Amino acid sequence: MLLLLPLLAFAFASLLIAAAAMAYSSGHAVTLEQRLVELGGARSKAPADDGGFDKVVDTLKRVGNALPRSTAEMGKLRTKLVRAGYRGHEAVAVFFGIRLAFALLCFWIFATPMFMRPNMAMAFAGCGLGYLLPGMALGRMAGRRQHRIRMGLADALDLLVVSVEAGLGLDQAIQRVGEEIAFAHQDLSDELRLVNLELRAGKGRTDSLRGLAERTGVDDLASLVAMLVQTDRFGTSVAQSLRVHSETLRTKRRQRAEEAAAKTGVKMVFPLVFCIFPAIFVVTIGPAAIKFVQVLGPMSQK
Questions:
Q1: Can you name the CATH fold of 146-259?
Q2: Crossing angle between the packed helical segments 120-165 and 71-84, to the nearest 10 degrees
C-alpha cells in the first residue's frame, strides 16, 4: 500500500499537467483564430448551438410585440436600450418579453410549493419585483457602458489631437481613432464608427456629433461635442481646441479620483462595523468572557 501512494501521486500530477496543457493549447488556438479573423476582416462563424438561443429570442420578441405599450414608455426605453448598447429594432420587443417572463417566473416561484410554502401575497409581490428587476438591470448595464466610454474618452481625445495635428481632417481623424481604440475601448470605438458611417451616408457633421452625445448620455462626451460644434461654426483651430479640452478633461478625471478617494473612509465604516469589529471582539474578548463564566459560574451556584 505504501508503494502505491507515490505511483498514485505521480499519476495525479501527470493528469493535472496534461489537463493544464490542453486548456492552454485550446485557449491559445482560440486567441490565434480571433487574431486571424481580425486581420482578415471577416466575421467569425456563429456557433452551431445558436439555434436554441434564436428560438428563445424569437419567442420573447413575439410575446413583447403582443403586449400593449405606450409611446412615452417606448421612447424612454429605446433611449435606455441604446445607451446600454442594444440598437436593434427588436430590442424593445425582446425587453418587454423578458420583463413579462421574469415576472411570471417570480410569481411561479412564490406560488408553488417547490421552494417554499405557497403564499399569494408573496407571489404578487414577487411578480411586481420581477417586473421591475429587468429595468433596473438595464439601467445598471447602461451605467457601466457609460463608465467605460468615459474612461476611454481621454485616450481617444489624445489620439484625436495627434491625428488632427498630423494633418488629417476631423472626419478622417474620427475614423482613424475609432479603428485604433477598438482593442482597448470597444464601446467608444463602436460609437465613433457609427458617427463615421453617418457622415459617409451624407448626414451633417453637427447632427452626427449631437446624435453621438444623445446616444451615449455621457456628460464629458456631450461637452466635447459642443466644443467641436462651436469650433466648426466659428472656424477656430480644431487642434488647439482639442488640446485645451483634453487638459480640462484630465483635470476633471483627477478631481473625480480625488473625490472617490475622499469617500473611501466613509464607505469603509459599514464593513468595519458589521463585519470586522464583531470578529475582533470575539477573538479578543471571547476567551476572557469564557474564563469569567468558568470562574464566576460555580460561585453563583453556591
A1: Receptor-associated Protein (1.20.81)
A2: 50
